[in-house]
Design goal:
Length: 331
């Protein structure tokens, strides 16, 4: 099938979540090299497109400037390959050989992946990045910017998941219908309901929204009916700290923002609450501390299944004057 013309950021973000592989062609109507390579790109799209698996798109950078800025497009044409919503490769310029090489390799990897997974169904974790809530227009899931080696989680019950479990790309087992089978892919607090999570990033971020997913079991399904874990209620956020805060230290430190999650904020289908941040206060974030202060109930246990970071990765760069790659000076 021919490439899909992107007319909004929301449309593109939807494709990133519904299709495992997405190829984006950033172009401009005035760009000669863009027009020259368009038949090659269209041909690859016709040959290799597969619904919900490999999707080819075309993005007019002049009309969709928010997307061009979000992915740091500085020249036309620029081709970007995404896998599971993450940018994996960029081809800049009208180079048919290079473009064909990259996309054929993508198709080969997709085929191998299908054979290995037996075309696993939704909920298996192999079909793409799971998101518990919609991504705000103009922003993207930047959870992959986390430096997982530096994660710290205080007061974690060791019988459950590790800190990195919170940022896994797979759908939570509670939602996928796996119940208690297999590894426990969530975290719970230990001695009381509080958790302190330290998140370092690989680059400076602009953080717009946080998605917090929590699936506490019913009393009938809980391992210990007397200690049914709760969903988080109060979350305090601290930015650009060089280390994890102690609980006493956090209570004596003014938070950048404290959010109260109300019962109606939790999506009934995905178990996810969107934490809208005061964006102006989260413009240059290198580390984030999330202090889960209390839960929605009287238990001594708090449960968190997934966390997603939504915003912009890297320093925001001005678009400036875009080059037409492939044209010689003076043409």
């Amino acid at each position: 099938m021919p490439p899909i013309q992107i007319t909004s950021t929301e449309q593109f973000n939807s494709l990133l979540t519904s299709s495992r592989f997405v190829v984006a062609d950033f172009y401009a109507d005035w760009c000669g090299p863009c027009k020259a390579i368009a038949p090659v790109y269209d041909s690859l799209s016709t040959q290799l497109s597969r619904p919900n698996h490999i999707t080819f798109t075309k993005i007019n950078g002049d009309q969709q400037q928010a997307l061009a800025q979000a992915y740091f497009v500085s020249a036309y044409p620029t081709f970007i390959v995404f896998e599971n919503g993450r940018k994996t490769q960029t081809v800049q310029g009208a180079d048919p050989r290079k473009l064909n090489e990259v996309i054929q390799k993508l198709a080969s990897e997709a085929t191998k992946s299908d054979s290995a997974s037996g075309q696993a169904g939704e909920g298996s974790g192999s079909g793409g990045i799971w998101l518990g809530a919609a991504v705000p227009r103009g922003y993207s899931d930047i959870t992959d910017q986390i430096d997982q080696k530096g994660l710290e989680l205080l007061n974690r019950d060791s019988q459950h998941g590790l800190p990195k479990t919170l940022f896994e790309a797979s759908k939570p087992s509670a939602l996928a219908g796996k119940g208690k089978a297999g590894e426990k892919d969530w975290v719970e607090s230990d001695t009381d309901e509080q958790l302190m999570l330290y998140i370092p990033f690989q680059s400076t971020l602009k953080v717009h929204t946080l998605h917090v997913t929590s699936f506490p079991p019913s009393a009938d399904d809980a391992e210990d009916p007397d200690e049914v874990p709760m969903r988080p209620r109060t979350v305090s956020l601290y930015t650009n700290r060089s280390h994890v805060l102690g609980f006493d230290e956090a209570e004596d430190t003014v938070a950048v923002q404290t959010i109260e999650i109300k019962p109606e904020d939790w999506d009934s289908k995905t178990g996810t609450a969107k934490l809208d941040l005061r964006f102006v206060k989260f413009q240059s974030v290198t580390t984030l501390v999330m202090f889960f202060v209390d839960g929605d109930g009287d238990s001594d246990k708090l449960r968190v299944d997934r966390i997603r970071i939504i915003g912009e990765a890297g320093e925001k760069r001005a678009m400036g004057k875009l080059e037409k790659i492939g044209d010689e000076p003076g043409e």
